[in-house]
């Protein structure tokens, strides 16, 4: 169980990281539901800000979970109104985080279940795989698709991602499958803490 969750700090450069605990990075386009997902996982209403003006800050937000790992909330990508230089800064920040970071256990890539993978999502997924990073795909907003169409939609999305090893569709509204993600994250963290 996630018993304790605490916002620690926001940073742009990994040299400012709080300490050497394992990290799980959350990536996804603006508005996909990253902040809502952190709130669902930690069972808190307002731990991560659910934004009405998306994609403004270029900061990596560190949340300490159960005193033994960090959930890292990255700003959303693919935010159209962001300036070109801000987009470049975002890409540089994320690349640094992925390339030179021994504490990063895996990346959780969030995709909108209703919208399906966008071009940005597919590029990001491919980029992560090329770097050899393990990716767990979480599809958000499952509640937006009628139950009768969910199976077909899941199959479609998985196909577009060439059948990822781990794919879990969730809802931050109904909390469906949040427990599955929680169990998965905690068991993966347990493996590195007690090998
Ligand atoms: N129906 C539904 N709405 C959701 C779900 N998750 C998030 N939302 C809504 O989607 C909007 C964006 O959610 P956020 O959690 O702020 O998204 P974000 O990825 O953190 O956005 P940025 O911080 O801008 O990158 C909000 O209005 C949420 O209430 C979900 O599972 N189902
Ligand atoms: Mg957010």
Count of helix runs: 5
Unreliable stretches covering 5 or more consecutive residues: none
CATH class: Alpha Beta
- Please write the string of helix (H) and strand (E) elements: EEHEEHEHEHEH
Cα-atom radius of gyration: 16 Å
What about the largest sheet? 7 strands, mixed
Please report which band the strand proportion falls in: under 5%, 5-15%, 15-25%, 25-35%, 35-45% or over 45%.
Answer: 15-25%
Q: How many β-strand runs?
A: 7
> What is the structural class?
alpha/beta
Assigned CATH architecture: 3-Layer(aba) Sandwich
Order of adjacent strands in the largest pleated sheet = 1-3-4-2-5-6-7
The helix content is 25-40%
CATH topology: Rossmann fold
**How many distinct domains?**
1
Overall 3D shape: globular
CATH-defined superfamily: P-loop containing nucleotide triphosphate hydrolases
Bound molecules: guanosine-5'-triphosphate, magnesium ion
Give the overall average pLDDT.
91
**Spatial separation of the terminal alpha carbons:** 19 Å
Protein name: Probable GTP-binding protein EngB
Organism: Mariniplasma anaerobium
Cofactor: Mg(2+)
GO molecular function: GTP binding; metal ion binding
């Amino acid at each position: 169980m996630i018993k304790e969750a605490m916002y620690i700090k926001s940073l742009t450069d990994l040299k400012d990281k709080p300490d050497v605990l394992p990290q799980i990075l959350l990536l996804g386009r603006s508005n996909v539901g990253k902040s809502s997902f952190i709130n669902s996982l930690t069972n808190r209403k307002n731990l991560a800000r659910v934004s009405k003006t998306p994609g403004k800050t270029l900061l990596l937000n560190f949340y300490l979970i159960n005193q033994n790992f960090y959930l890292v909330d990255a700003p959303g990508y693919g935010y159209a109104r962001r300036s070109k230089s801000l987009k470049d800064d975002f890409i540089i920040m994320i690349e640094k985080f992925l390339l030179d970071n021994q504490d990063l256990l895996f990346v959780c890539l969030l995709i909108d279940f209703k919208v399906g993978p966008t071009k940005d999502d597919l590029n990001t997924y491919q980029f992560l795989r090329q770097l050899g990073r393990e990716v767990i795909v979480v599809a958000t907003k499952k509640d937006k698709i009628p139950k009768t169409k969910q199976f077909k939609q899941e199959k479609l999305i998985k196909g577009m991602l060439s059948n990822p090893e781990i794919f879990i569709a969730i809802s931050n509204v109904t909390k469906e499958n949040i427990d599955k993600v929680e169990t998965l994250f905690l068991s993966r963290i347990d493996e590195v803490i007690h090998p």
